[in-house]
């Protein structure tokens, strides 16, 4: 889990679909304990959201992914959370035996009907399978010291 380098106000997740199955992890702590969720986590200082997402997926599931477009953003008075659609690149799904107790590929329709898949995960899965593109990455070169830049727009 987190360390002193963790930015507790910024988190990311992604929906990864392969062969009509979604990758889910059974959470082991907090309010989502025992629930099947899309993996993700906090952004570390010095990381882009995309880098954090790739790292979190590898740490938690042993799956290499490639974030594509943004399918959701959640804001509250405490933090923000960005949800991506991501492509499966490689790897065999395996639990980290820490933040999750199992990682599995589940048929999309099954995931959308199960009681142990929370509402937020179902909404994100539905967004990922939607025919809408979501916010797409656009090439953009900033002109200040705050590189790299990421621009997502319609």
Topology of helices and strands:
Blueprint: E1 6-18, E2 21-27, E3 36-37, E4 40-44, H1 49-61, E5 64-75, E6 80-90, E7 100-107, H2 108-113, H3 119-129, E8 136-138, E9 151-153
Parallel strand pairs: 1-6
Antiparallel strand pairs: 1-2, 1-4, 2-3, 2-7, 5-6, 8-9
Walk me through this protein's architecture:
This protein has a single domain (6-153), classed as Nucleoside Triphosphate Pyrophosphohydrolase (Alpha-Beta Complex), CATH 3.90.79. The chain contains 3 helices and 9 strands, in the order E-E-E-E-H-E-E-E-H-H-E-E. The protein has 154 residues and is α+β, with helices and mostly antiparallel strands. Strands 1, 2, 3, 4, 5, 6 and 7 form a 7-stranded mixed sheet that branches. The radius of gyration is 15 Å and the shape is globular. The protein has helices at residues 49-61, 108-113, 119-129; strands at residues 6-18, 21-27, 36-37, 40-44, 64-75, 80-90, 100-107, 136-138, 151-153.
Keywords:
single chain; 154 residues; alpha+beta; Nucleoside Triphosphate Pyrophosphohydrolase; seven-stranded mixed sheet; two-stranded antiparallel sheet; globular
């Amino acid at each position: 889990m987190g360390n002193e380098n963790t930015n507790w106000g910024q988190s990311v997740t992604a929906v990864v679909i392969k062969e009509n199955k979604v990758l889910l992890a059974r959470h082991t702590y907090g309010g989502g304990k025992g629930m099947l969720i899309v993996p993700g986590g906090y952004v570390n200082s010095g990381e882009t959201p995309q880098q954090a997402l790739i790292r979190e997926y590898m740490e938690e599931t042993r799956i290499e992914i490639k974030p594509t477009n943004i399918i959701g953003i959640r804001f509250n008075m405490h933090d923000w959370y960005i949800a991506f659609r991501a492509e499966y690149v490689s790897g065999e799904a395996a639990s980290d035996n820490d933040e999750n107790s199992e990682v599995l590929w589940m048929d999309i329709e099954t995931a959308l009907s199960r009681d142990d898949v929370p509402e937020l995960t179902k909404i994100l899965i539905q967004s990922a399978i939607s025919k809408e593109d979501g916010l797409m990455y656009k090439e953009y070169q900033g002109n200040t010291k705050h590189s790299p830049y990421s621009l997502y727009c319609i």
